[in-house]
Amino acid sequence: MKLKCNGKKIEIKNATNFTTRLVGLIGKKDINYGILFPKCNAIHTFFMKQEIDVVGINEENQVIYIYRNVPKNKIVRIKDNAKKTSILELPKNASKSFVIGSIIKWEE
Known about the structure:
By secondary structure, this protein is mainly beta. It has one helix spanning about 20-25, and strands spanning about 1-5, 10-15, 35, 40-45, 50-55, 65-70, 75, 85-90, 105.
């Protein structure tokens, strides 16, 4: 699936198994895609090579939290219920066009 961010389409991978949820963007350089973590309310940036943007969305794909340029070795926790929240990890500065309350529209 794809997501339009700042006028560009970014490929979004869905972290649905243990390995993809565990690894995420760890160790990646020049990140040009995002990862969606369904039913998740916390991520970490340990062992990351660069900063990322972290967007929290609810069941209706509405943006509820935005953390821009999250540096390595941080934990980001969204206080909402994990079963009703998803987290989207994006390349640094990719979330500039999002605001709290925006609805994310996925493209196939």
